[in-house]
Design a protein that fits this description.
Length: 580
């Protein structure tokens, strides 16, 4: 691994550093300072919420805003030569404002009491940044007692809710009418971490109260800049505020201020001596779309260069996938086609909900829906790229090779959650074990996830999702044109393994399951769904009645088809159930 800490090249940081260190520590910096102009150029409102996926430069940009606005850094040269320095119309804001800064990414959420304790500590840090004010007559005895109580973690919630507003009033008064800039990083982290727990609602309500108390009709505030990963906590937290601007992955303004543009990536590769690596970087880390801007994953590109130009799933390894895993494992049968499209990398046309609450998700999942909510969350969190496709819908697709590896990990996790059932089904299908197919399919139906299957499409969707998990090296498709018709499910190996063709029937009773399974297998033969395949092919006829199943299986060898020779049928395994 090449070490960029030495020599004439700038050090390349992958851990995040204060903005001042980029110049003082000779650290490579991609200029995003025009975000300042984006904010100051639109002053019709004063609360700005910037929503982007994790590791796309939100915290670095927040540190940059602190360096620009904070009066404590007056006289610095950190912005000299950067783009914003050419725009003198904003000089009146440079290092002229007191700043309140908070970061909620490490707030505990296992219980509401622990959350309050952690919030108290974080607010105390915000006060402590101005500790000198509490040692003089600039603050009243009550304000001094509040500061001391925050340090002792003994502030009543009623006072805690208004504490940041109190701090803004102290700063505004002390600095003779200079209005305060509020910077809050990862506002939605506590809500995300509390998802599906008893503390979700009280945490959301408390954050809404403190944000409203601090920012609503507060004449001491110049502006507030708030970052998060999703808009998912917007309702209930900002509903009491006026003049809120939400900038998300669809917003055209500031599209290039997060992530790296193609030009910025090319410049970095050129600087570090490997411009020929651009195509590899594009394959692995390009494909994101913020507004009208195509951008690369910031964290992954930096790690790629830092680790000697070795491609890997750096972003995928840098955070938790649990919220999405939770949703994907709870999707009901009618939404499994969404999973199949995502895992196979086929673009999916869908609506995207840009603003929703976790209550919305919980309700949708409880009703057996949740597909649109899941896709919307994946777009906001950076797992899918969304391109407008008319009628208020978007074309959703995996952005790059790195995210393909993430989705592969999702599939593996889903497979693990299936216990031994999925490996057993894989073995049964590849070994044309009809009884094994019947038994494991019934176990899956009996697992409790599929209580309301009603018809052919429901069983087909369930099997599609299961097969995408157990055959990651196959191209699994529903109803492709094969022979003289459309097979229900076909799995063709990309590299080794048998072809699998499945036809599904629904029976009117348990007693007719056997005949329907026979008819399903015969339909595969008659219509020729396996026509044109090469190598060993397993034909499976499945019949369902509610949560009971019957299977028939047969293996054919298609290696000599091109020479016009007759298909060689190995043998048919017909297993009768005991009660038939």
């Amino acid at each position: 691994m090449r070490d960029y800490r030495h020599g004439n090249l700038a050090y390349l940081s992958i851990s995040g550093v204060p903005f001042r260190d980029f110049k003082e520590g000779n650290i490579y910096y991609v200029d995003k300072t025009m975000l300042i102009a984006d904010i100051l150029g639109d002053r019709s409102r004063n609360v700005y919420i910037y929503v982007r996926p994790r590791r796309f430069g939100k915290s670095t940009n927040l540190s940059m805003l602190d360096a620009f606005f904070n009066l404590k850094y007056e006289g610095n040269d950190w912005f000299d030569g950067l783009e914003i320095s050419k725009h003198h119309e904003f000089d009146g804001h440079r290092n002229t404002h007191p700043v309140i800064r908070m970061n909620l990414k490490d707030i505990l959420t296992d219980t509401f009491d622990n959350f309050i304790g952690a919030m108290t500590e974080e607010i105390h840090h915000a006060f402590k940044a101005h500790h000198e004010l509490f040692q003089t007559d600039a603050t009243t005895p009550d304000e001094k007692r509040l500061y001391e109580s925050l340090g002792l973690n003994s502030v009543p919630q009623s006072l805690l809710v208004n504490s940041l507003k109190t701090l803004s009033e102290i700063l505004y008064r002390t600095y003779e009418g200079r209005r305060v800039v509020v910077l809050i990083d990862e506002y939605d982290h506590p809500v995300t971490e509390a998802f599906d727990t008893d503390s979700l609602r009280p945490i959301t309500q408390f954050l809404g109260k403190i944000l409203s108390a601090t920012l609503k009709d507060n004449g001491c505030i110049e502006l507030a800049y708030i970052t998060g990963i999703t808009r998912i906590a917007k309702e209930g937290m900002f509903s009491g505020l006026n003049g809120v601007v939400v900038n998300d992955v669809f917003s055209e303004r500031s599209g290039e201020r997060f992530g790296f543009t193609e030009r910025e990536v090319r410049d970095m590769l050129e600087y570090y001596g490997h411009p020929e690596k651009f195509d590899e970087v594009r394959e692995w880390y390009d494909g994101y779309r913020f507004g009208d801007s195509e951008v690369y994953n910031t964290f992954s590109v930096l790690n790629y260069v830092y680790h000697g130009f070795e491609p890997d799933g750096y972003w995928a390894m840098s955070g938790s996938d649990e919220p999405l895993i939770w949703m994907m494992t709870r999707l009901r049968y009618r939404n499994f086609p969404l999973i199949s499209g995502i895992v196979r990398g086929v673009p999916t046309r869908s609506e995207v909900i840009r603003s929703m609450t976790y209550d919305d998700i919980l309700e949708a999942m409880g009703n057996g829906e949740g597909g649109t909510e899941m896709l919307s969350l994946m777009v906001m969190a950076g797992y899918l790229k969304a391109i407008p496709d008319g009628d208020g819908k978007y074309l959703l697709s995996l952005p790059n090779k790195e995210i393909q590896s993430v989705m592969g990990r999702f599939t593996s996790r889903l497979r693990e959650k299936g216990g031994s059932m999925l490996p057993d089904l894989e073995r049964a299908m590849t070994e044309r074990d009809a009884e094994g197919v019947r038994r494991t399919v019934e176990e899956i139906l009996d697992s409790g996830s599929y209580l309301t299957v009603r018809g052919h499409a429901d069983y087909q969707n369930i099997l599609m999702a299961v097969m995408l998990c157990i055959f990651p090296d196959h191209d699994v498709r529903a109803e492709p044109e094969r022979g003289n018709g459309r097979a229900d499910i076909v799995a063709v190996p990309r590299d080794g393994g048998p072809n699998i063709v499945i036809e599904i029937k629904t029976a009117g009773s348990d007693e007719s399951l056997g005949q329907e399974a026979n008819d399903a297998l015969e339909q595969i033969r008659r219509v020729g769904y396996h026509r044109g395949m090469r190598g060993r092919t397993v034909l499976i006829g499945l019949a369902f009645h509610v949560k009971r199943a019957e299977a028939r299986a047969e293996t054919v060898d298609l290696r000599r088809r091109n020479r016009g020779e007759r298909l060689s049928t190995c043998r048919t395994a017909i297993i009768n159930r005991a009660f038939l």
